[in-house]
Design brief:
This protein is about 60% helix and about 0% strand. With about 230 residues, it is mainly α. Helix 1 runs antiparallel to helix 2 and helix 2 packs antiparallel against helix 8. The longest helix has about 35 residues. One of its GO terms (cellular component) is plasma membrane. InterPro entries: Tetraspanin/Peripherin, Tetraspanin_EC2_sf. Pfam families: Tetraspanin (PF00335). Keywords: Cell membrane, Lipoprotein, Membrane, Palmitate, Transmembrane, Transmembrane helix.
Length: about 230
């Protein structure tokens, strides 16, 4: 909503807030992804938690736990948490459950423990269980979704930064290089006369020039005097 309102109103403050929020969220997501990726698949605390429940194996009130252990050991071909000897260390059992046998039948674990240990699964179930969880389709979908969201956030930040740049430089008024001269006034009226008055005055004279007017009057008086003398 912040990004939408900022884009609609062309508000630099809202767009800056939106960009900073996206950048912060992306950094947190990236740090979490790197931290999760660098973590070992099986933590020591997880192994201790699994081992602490092994003494309840075979008890009447923990039938679900017994069934779960048998299912895991049969499905993943493993035995114990880290090694098959976990059953001997954490419980009072003298040999592992029959679900640890590669070829299962009643009493197979006792027979293998006394004669041939190769008939028992040697690898523990802890690493296999966590490897299975990390490789499930649901987790793969979550990873793909996380990468897609990250790419969308990068594109949104790039577009927001471009819009901020355009708005910031678009609002700056251009500075004039020099002061333009005022336009010439071409609207002055032109006066047109007819007859004798249409003759242009001599160069350097106009109606307001007293010297020119006096000279013209003297010439007129002299012309009149000559005409009277001839007549």
């Amino acid at each position: 909503m912040v990004g939408y309102c900022g884009t609609l109103r062309c508000d630099l403050l809202l767009l800056s807030w939106y960009f900073c929020s996206l950048l912060l969220i992306f950094c947190v997501e990236l740090a979490s992804a790197v931290w999760t990726y660098d973590q070992p698949p099986v933590q020591r605390s997880d192994m201790i938690s699994l081992k602490s429940r092994m003494p309840n194996f075979g008890l009447q009130r923990y039938q679900w736990l017994t069934h779960t252990w048998n299912s895991f050991q049969t499905e993943f071909k493993c035995c114990g948490v880290i090694y098959f000897t976990d059953w001997l260390e954490m419980t009072e059992m003298e040999f592992p459950p029959d679900s640890c046998c590669s070829n299962q039948y009643p009493g197979c674990a006792r027979q293998a423990h006394l004669h041939d240990l190769s008939d028992l699964h040697q690898e523990g179930c802890g690493p296999k269980i966590y490897s299975f969880i990390r490789g499930t389709k649901q987790l793969q979908v979550l990873r793909f979704l996380g990468v897609s969201i990250g790419v969308a956030q990068i594109l949104a930040m790039a577009l927001t930064l471009t819009l901020l740049w355009a708005l910031y430089y678009g609002r700056k008024a251009p500075e004039p290089d020099s002061v333009a001269p005022p336009p010439q006034d071409d609207t002055a009226p032109l006066t047109v006369t007819h007859g004798a008055s249409a003759e242009a005055p001599p160069s350097g004279c106009n109606r307001t020039n007293k010297a020119c007017n006096a000279g013209a009057h003297a010439k007129t008086t002299e012309l009149q005097f000559e005409m009277e003398r001839l007549s």
